[in-house]
TrEMBL record, chains A, B, C, D:
Descriptive protein name: ATP-dependent 6-phosphofructokinase
Domain Phosphofructokinase: 4-312
Entries under InterPro entries matching the protein: ATP_PFK, ATP_PFK_prok-type, Phosphofructokinase_CS, Phosphofructokinase_dom, Phosphofructokinase_III, PKF_sf
Organism: Geoanaerobacter pelophilus
Described function: Catalyzes the phosphorylation of D-fructose 6-phosphate to fructose 1,6-bisphosphate by ATP, the first committing step of glycolysis.
EC number: 2.7.1.11
Length: 362, 362, 362, 362
């Protein structure tokens, strides 16, 4: 039976989003004869009819190698706690009824929500109000449970490793400590894997509180063996031992961990004090979100899109597509959003890093 | 107890080999105080003492981002069927006793063989003669069983997709059919995944015999919808329906599938006959083996190396390290080399490709 | 005074064409209030009204980083010798009157022809029939006189050097001779500059006939000094000493130099006979034309486009924009197309290559 | 006559330095039979014998594609004003006599100084004290007079444009203003050329004081035409109209222009106040210095090295090699260091940018 599906992308942009959108559109139209509605700017687009538009084959032509999302995205727009101005004051109200209404009025039979923990949680709540939703996991930080990995992360790793390769030449030539700050508020995956791949000497992740003294000792030890430079990769959420940040999942608390100048700056300054070495900071920032997706991310995004269609076809809702080994499967959304997927401080990857001689800050 | 381990790399070179070697050396020396012997040019290096040399931290400095293998490699040197010149004639003899002797005289407690199906089979036979071996899987074609994937494949995919991105501009500008031939004698993984990621219109793999007529029909259909160009990715081992190649694993038969001009040339010529369209061929060839390994391959190679050390430490021999989901495990070598891992013509990845509107030649 | 300008791209595609088109459109519309007509598929587009369409700001949005040309191009369509089928036979006729008529009927006040020697020669002849033309030089081979360099060449060099970097790892790991064939039918610029940048050991260019014996001697000498691999870069038009190709500019004769298997194959086979070394060939082919243009080519293309508008504004026709040092200037088209710009076999660049220890085949 | 030449690299590191060093070593040893002495850590290396070491062919093997300098470099070590600790206080003394002495004792017949304005000025002063010097220009900022361009700049441009391409996807997806800060304390070349190539909407350079109001107006105008994002590239030395920085060449004053948070942060904050748009900053920083040099920079560096040898051979000292059009020439060092090469605010490149619709802050 012909269907009309709606697609939205929520949260930060991520390489591979367009691959998912393209796969959904191609698979829906070419194979199934369904219609597709593109919803602009995340959940915000469910508030206004003008932000829903038909997506055809023409709209997805040539978008596979392009970063970002042709649908636009925002971090706002949670219909269950929506900021509304009333009498000059900002009030948080629940406008989800209106959103459910809009979805139904647009004739949308199934809503594909592509997003991270935050967006998937909203999708789940909409599901509970009767909207048939399918989730597609998206997190550049690799911090979503129940899937081996999601698209975007691989591209972000390439960007970070490419940057580390570049910093190596300056570090070596100038005998410097180079600190590179990468994404990762709660989970240190990007720092850990790009650090291993980029030949870092020290890696600091949120899951392992660090000691500046031990870092300095380790750089000193390297120097005494003739290595006159060191490379440090620090996840933005890395914390000093004794620091008072409480790790808690959920986007509401995220802004607490922002800090004047950032962790890179902090580590560099502290190291400068205990070592007589020149130290410089690079903050990768938004570069990690951008650019043409890697082969891995384009494939994974495409396969996720096709799998989402199959779930809709079978009438399976409330699930999120996921990667397990080499297979695409699906899993209940609530299992995926119950907490963030963090690096295990005693796990295999951390252990490998330490056996490679990398200092984890402890 | 202090050990001395030997490392060799066999078969074609592959991005990530140096990451494995570096991890083995670092993990052995820094953490365990073991000695490492580098064996040059694959199994050939076991024949001459001059080809075994100590590998220290200095030898592996800076090799992580470099392609190839610092140990050298060859496709020759199988000690169980070794070509020896006798009275002006080439004779195939079994010199494995001498090799086993050399290994023991070099004081090697464990041999780490990094290689594909061929090299791992040799390693297994050496094991049966008493040499304690650990295998590290290496195949740029992704055709090894029992591991989700090996290093090198991801980098090769990036190279192939990068090339497809490039060919797109010429194909579009000139309204041409562009055929790109990629590696894959028996397994079509590179063609399939790079084709999906590179937005190919037709993908030809060894596992699915193709029909030129159907390919031409599909290009014709595209043209009638206004698409004046098409991109075809062909694995080197792709075969026309009714062709008489018998797929059989094992390196001995591989050269049968080589063919004058290659499959790319053949497909291009045949298409030129049935369509009035300009067609050009690109053979990626050795570019797919080369270059700096991707982040994924550097990490995977590093983790494989560390895992191999752990196996040796525990006295587990005859096993090959492998990736399962996000974990590094190990598996009996004989399970991995019993046949090649081929694309399932009715499997999930092929299905996704077809739902994306890609023509698989059938 | 408001004007309407026509733009066409002729000959092979080339990274940077879209930068020129975008600059012409932006500079014409934003600054001058002119109209722009895009002519599709090179000079062919001047034959049919349906191939001329208005180009506005929307049409050039996002095209700067994209390879190829949004206008399409062909190598056919010379209106002065146009193939027409008459009574089942192909006849070459002069249809330039019709073309001149079409241009005037389309209300085009000035025609910007972006192309190489061939396209610029046609443009010049149209000029002589009264069409006000401005030329923008385009040659991926860098064989156009009167400009230091054109766009496309820099990107092609990057592609070739990137490939050489990749081949190095295989060459080193396998102790092989790797031959890479690059573009350059008459001029060896790509081979020469990418060879210098990619650390080639031997470079073969059309301007210097080569001796296989001397090449083998040089590889032998390298081997005796301990270098067990060699990298050869060969321009597709390179010739053996005593070979009988007559170098002549003009696209008509170009196909004479095509040869079974190509120069790379030939050199590899001949070297295999005199040396006992494994040798492999890579033909870069269309990869050199493709891909996102480099910064240099995007800037140069953009500046060329703006300069072309300035010429039109001043009523200067029959000139081609060009780069001299760091300045964009212009020069009479006839000066640029009088012959190809070849590598000087005794010039500074060849001399530098030889001082670097590179063997030029002589 | 056999000679012994000394090589040093001064100032910040820069892609292409190793190409120069390699060319000097290869050209000196292979062609001329000269000896080469590598001087470590810039002019600092002239103070201690232990920092001078013979450079042979082995030392330069494989360094062509590598960033940085194998000789190391520092920004310190000016022998004419050298900081020495005396009685617990830092005193600036002239130790140039000792340096001249060391050079002569090391048997160095000619000193090749590879560096920017600062290093070349020191070289010139050593020349005046009798040391035969040849200069090789190096500036990643492209701010050296008397050469069309130097190596390193092209690679830095590629890095900056690559980053802009990445930021585009986030800017578009999130409807944001993205500000990217690039190098350029006094000269805006990197900002200007990467901005043109990366499709920036606003470019801020030190040579053109900017007005925040006008920038906001221009972004507002874009938004009213439907473009919901804007990209701003700012050179680190860009200044607001009415700001009080005095532009003066010479490294001594450079640190005055450093500022809390940097120009990117400043512009972003100011724009956020006058526009209701989300704005983010990326500081490229040291990424611009790093990485494998581009083809252009490897070739130019190699040719510079060879030219320097020719000058020594002819006994021409006190000159700096340079690029003019397509030729390598030489020029008196004093002509090159008399002031920095700045962007002409009324010149061709700025004009082209403005015709492309780019806002230059004025």
């Amino acid at each position: 039976m012909a269907k009309r599906i709606g697609i939205l992308t929520g949260g930060g942009d991520c390489p591979g989003l367009n691959a998912v959108i393209r796969a959904l559109v191609k698979g829906a139209i070419l194979k199934r004869g369904w219609e597709v509605v593109g919803i602009e700017d995340g959940f915000d687009g469910l508030l206004e009819e003008s932000k829903m538009r038909p997506l055809g084959l023409n709209e997805v032509r040539g978008i596979l190698p392009r970063g970002g999302t042709i649908l636009g995205t925002t971090n706002r727009g949670n219909p269950f706690s929506y900021p509304v101005e009333k009498d000059g004051k900002l009030e948080i109200v629940d406008i989800s009824d209106r959103v459910v209404d809009n979805i139904s009025r647009a004739g949308i039979d199934a809503l594909v929500a592509i997003g991270g923990e935050g967006s998937l949680t909203i999708a789940l709540e909409l599901m509970r109000k009767g909207v048939p939703v399918v989730g597609v996991p998206k997190t550049i930080d690799n911090d979503l449970l129940e899937t081996d990995v999601t698209f975007g992360y691989n591209t972000a790793l390439e960007t970070a490793t490419y940057a580390l390769d570049k910093l190596h030449s300056t570090a070596e030539s100038h005998h410097r400590v180079m600190v590179m700050e990468v994404m990762g508020r709660y989970a240190g995956w990007i720092a850990l894997e790009s650090g291993i791949a980029g030949g870092a000497d020290v890696i600091l992740i949120p899951e392992i509180p660090f000691s500046i003294e031990k870092i300095c000792e380790s750089i000193e030890r390297r120097r005494s063996r003739g290595s006159r430079f060191s490379i440090i990769v620090a996840a933005e959420g890395a914390m000093e031992k004794g620091g008072n940040r409480v790790v808690k999942s959920g986007p509401d608390l995220r802004h607490q961990v922002e800090r004047l100048g950032g962790i890179g700056e902090y580590v560099s300054r502290r190291i400068g004090k205990c070592l007589d070495m020149d130290s410089r900071v690079t903050v990768l920032g938004h570069l990690q979100r951008g650019g043409s997706p890697s082969t891995f991310d384009r494939c994974l995004g495409s396969r996720f899109g096709i799998k989402a269609l199959e779930l809709i076809e079978k009438g399976i809702f409330g699930e999120m597509v996921c990667l397990r080994g080499t297979e695409i499967r699906s899993v209940k959304i609530e299992k995926a959003v119950r907490r963030l997927k963090l690096v295990n401080p005693r796990g295999q990857m951390v252990n490998a890093a330490e056996e490679l001689g990398i200092m984890l800050g402890r």
